[in-house]
Amino acid sequence: MMKWIASAAFGMEGLTGKDLKRLGAENVNVLNVGGASFEGNMEMGMKANLWLRCADHVSLVVGEFEARSYEELFDGIRAIEWEDHLDYDTAFPIRAHCVKSTLMSPSDCQKIAKKAIADSLKAEYGGDWLPETGALVQIDVSIRDDKVTVTLDASGEPLSKRGYRTWNGEAPLRETLAAALVLSSGWHPWQPLYDPCCGTGTLLIEAAFIALNRAPGLRRSFAMEKWPFVDKDALEKVRREAQSKYDECAGRPIHIAGSDIDPEAIELASRHIRQAGLSGRIDLYVKDMREVTLKGEPGAIIANPPYGERIGDRRVAHAVAKQLGELSKRCPGWNMYAFSADMGFEREFGRRASRRRRFYNGKIECEYHMFENGSLQKNSQTHTRGGKA
User: Were both Cys, which of 38, 47, 122, 190 would link to 25 (CB 3.0–4.6 Å)?
Assistant: First the structure.
């Protein structure tokens, strides 16, 4: 059984752990810092890459040991059976990260790791040099509190890179964070969802992926698919299974819409929706939030409004918070979920949130304010998150 780590930003560790359990991963352990560890075969690693909505990277753990000297670091890395993971010509760049440890020089740790791995491979394959002209396997050496964890990057580009967003607006919301906002709300996929300041559409697209049981990584590749030691047919089978799950739900009716006062943002959102393969599934409008009134079956309003630090205008942030409060009053029965770093958000909104959750948008600490009226309370047993394998 292989050990893996799914790294995630602050606030998204628990969501990542829940997704891993739904995928059928074994011994899932939500970490205090940085995500969740789990166990499974190579196919489970591929499932994690395809289905995890809130994680940043998936990595395969190949070694764990303690080191307080460069000699111990060298010996520990050299002792790993590298021939099981690298061919004679495999390119193996090294990244190092050190936190609260005796060894605190990433560049020195990189050099030591490179030499240790090269010595191991030369002893196994013979020869005096390694060409590194073959497949690339990115190796990460992380040292925290003198504990060394050596991993292979199974994702490549961050998992937030879904492949549909090639244009960005003024203050884009990262895809993994958008998914976390949707998953943390009380919205159910069969209910309406509206974003009154949708920007370039990331939150709407992530909600549609969830509603249609579409793996967020379905249309991109992963580093592990080029590893020299994997069964590529087995990984392709996992991808086909994910495509099949989406095909089964692609025709499911959804009620997802959004608007923005900026026509250029709506144009970008339209492009992203087309690139995500969701043309005709999400409704967009150029509209001032003050003109939005929602009728019909109640659902969820989820918004990532401007909040001062992000666009440099705190007065605008206060005005938007007040407008969201007025919108909530115009839409009885709808729950409101607003993501903001504005410390005065609830005061301007007009009432206190029933729930709050903390996330980071880049380096900005934000609160997710949840104004729920009781009619759309969260039901984790029936809220379809996608990816049940």
Answer: 38
